[in-house]
Amino acid sequence: MVDVGIAYLIECAKQHRTVAYGELWKAVGRRLDRNIGNSYFQMPQLLGYISERSFEGVGLFLTALVVEDGPDGHPEQGFFRLASARGVLPERDAPRVGEQWTITPVQRKFWKDQVAAIFAKAEHLTMPGR
Question: Quick one: 63 exposed, middle or buried, by C-beta within 10 A (0-12, 13-18, 19+)?
Answer without folding.
Answer: buried
